[in-house]
Structures are given as structure tokens and as C-alpha cells.
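REQUEST ID: PR-0412
SUBMITTED BY: lab tech R.K.
PRIORITY: routine
TASK: structure prediction, single protein chain
INPUT:
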Amino acid sequence: MSISTSGLNLDHTSVAGTPGTSRPIHDPATGERIGEAPVHTVEDLEAAVAAARTAQPAWAALGHAARSAALNRAAAAIDRSAEDLARLLSREQGKPLNGPNARFEVGACSAWLRAAAATVLEPETVVDDGQTRAELHYRPIGVVGAIGPWNWPMLITVWQIAASLRMGNAVVVKPSEYTPLSVLALVEVINGELPEGVLTAVSGGRDVGEALASHAHIGKVMFTGSTATGKAIIRSSADTVKRLTLELGGNDAGIVLPDADPAAIAEGLFWGAFINTGQTCAALKRLYVHEDIYEAVCESLTAVAQAMPMGVGLDENNVLGPLQNKQQFDVVARLVDAAKESGARVLLGGNPDADRPGYFYPTTLVADIDNDNPLVAEEQFGPALPIIRYSTVEEAVAKANALDVGLGASVWSSDSAAAREVASRLEAGTVWINSHGMVNPLIPFGGAKQSGYGLEFGVEGLKAVSVPQIING
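STATUS: complete
OUTPUT:
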């Protein structure tokens, strides 16, 4: 089966065997059918794992320099196909081409591959006292299973595979059922620069994901998605004592201190919350604003939000798109409706057009809302931001820390020292100051509490997809 998107002709032959069925994939902005995705089976997964086990030793034996060179070539191949990949991503996921969206995501894929290739991880001498010499080395795990989400399907796949490949592992990828075409296309481009069997994508259903998570010959699972699914993966991985990296749900809090400049921070607040139309695990999802500047922040943020066009992703003018699927649209609608029914003040949005094609939910800002309202307490994962008033910093910190998740958080202030002091009290894997959600391939990233465990990116990301080995003597 193949799918063509402009100049990109992708024959998805990543798995030994031919899928028995396929299913249509539709554009969430228009409902238009854009292609057919293969439906692979557990038997196809078995073939992929077998091929990975066969290919992995030779891949590991190439050494870091040769593997890094292959990743750099793969990055260049992505760059050559960047526009076609971005257009496919826009049509399947819904995100616009422009802004921090489809073209941005594809460009980040090649950047992350290059960063993984360039990151240095040398053996470390931990003791050398004349009698004992102990060195710490990092060896490949073997076969890594990567289960990805639908919100940043290409980029998060690269997050999972770049370090794994660099460290000498083979990888079997299971994309989201909502966005398989984007990942299949990306893997096909990368595979033009890799030995056969080292990287495989298996486009199947939940049964394939469950089989991958429990497979006896997969040594590590990397998963990005919901906390509930993460817990299921933990349970299914127990019998084979798999290593895990889990980036799970979040409900990130931002705290605006009373000395902040509302106009200066408004655009940063907007993109912190509404990047990818709010469909980002580490997006700003609860905004706590000091009472002294509350109305000013609401006014400045509303002005920025009103100016951001939402529509079909292939329209070059848009920077916000639809929700990717009906299920997520219904979650956002339910939570906003609960806020409206409670008497909260809707500053913008909250009124989806039932006659408009696609899963568009308007950019929504909700003020004067209680901290225990469902729109605050639950992760909305969409274009709706609750803005909560607070009186003291202690109150804001307590509310920010009250939930059982802790992926990211942010502090907004004109005083960097004051912001850092507050940041040190927040229970989150990353705390940004005067920005939110910005990630860097050299800076480790991971969650706290029930937002998961394990680090990605940089040296720590390489270590996380390796087995540490002490050579002592």
C-alpha cells in the first residue's frame, strides 16, 4: 500500500508480511478522506521484532561514529522531504502549516536527530586508585518499543527513536491509530539511510500496543500518552522487567507574580497554552494570576488570542487548527460547559459552531473560576484556558501542587530571582520562567508524580536507552 503526497511517494513496507486490512484516515479539519492506513496484526509485530533482533547486533557493532553519520543522513533526508511531510501532517493531525505547527514539527525532527548524533557520552572512570580501576560504560539494550501519541506524532516518534538508534538499539514503532500515516511516512524517509530491520513501524490497534508492551524480546518501552495507559504498560511490563520511559498526562500550572508586566507576557502566555491548539502534554493548562494584575492579564491575553486565526491547516494564514478527533472535542466541550454552568466568566470563545465542518473548538478563555472546577482540575488538552485569581504566592503554589500530575510548570515575573525561588517550590519535572513548554534537544525532559518517569534528550536521554555496565579490574 502506498500514499502519495505531492512529490513524496511512500511505500509502507516496514513490516514483514502484508496487512490484511486497511482503514480510511480523514482530515479533522474538513472530514475529507486523505488516505488508507494499514492495519497490522500481532503476527506482523512478531515479524518486526524478529527482524529487529536480527539487525540489532550489526547495527550496534558499527559504533557511535557510523551510527551518528547515519542519523545525520536521515536528518538530511527529512529536510529534503520536509514540505511534503508537513502537508501530510497538517492534513492528518489538523495542525496548520505555519506557526509552531507542521513545518515547525518536521524541522524539529531533523534537529533532534542531529542533536542525538552529536551528543557525546564517553565511558567514565569512577575509581582509579592504583589498586582498582572501575569504568562505567553504556551498552545497547537490544530492541526498544516506541508507542507514540497523535498530538505531535512525528516529533515524539523522533524523540523516542533518535537516542535509541544512536546507542545501538533497534526500534519497533507503534503509532497512534489517529495519526499513522505521518509516522509511517517519517519512518520510510529515515529508513532510506538505515540498514533493513533496524527501524520498523507497525500500524495496528490496541492489541498490537499491548503485545509490544509485554513482548519478551523488547527490552525497553518508551511511551507518551495518558496516565491510565502508562499504568497499564507498567503492569504488562512487569513479567519481563522491562525498562520504561513514560511521559504521561499533565495539567501544567503557570503562576503570574504581581510584578509581571501583563502586556509583555501576554503572547508568551498564549503560546504556552495554545501551541498545537492546546494539544500538548506540557502546555499551560491552569493559569494563576495575582489579584493586583488579574484584570490586566485577562485583558492583554484576550487581545492576543483574538488576533490568532483558526482554520484549515493548509491555509497559510492560520496558526490554530481543529482538535484532532471527536473524542477530544467532546472532552473540551464538556469541561467548558461545566465552567459556564458554574457561573465562570467567559472572556472569549466557548461557543463552537455546530454547522462548521471539522472538530473546531474556538479559542476559549475562562475567568473567575473556582480551583476545583473540572476545567481546572482535569486536563482539557485543547484550546480552553482557565484563569484563576490568587491573593498570596503561598496560595498559588499550594494550588499548583495540589494535583497528582507534574509534567511542567511556569513562573512569570519581572524579577528573575523571585521567579526562581517560586520555581524551586513547584512539583514538576520542568519549570520554565517567563515561557512555557519550550523544549531543547540538549536539555533533559521528564515528568514528576503521575506524569511519568525517565528522562529524554541530551546525555541523560542517551543513558536512558542504554544498559549501564561497570568494568572493574
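NOTES: The first strand starts at residue 2 and ends at 5.
REVIEWED BY: pending
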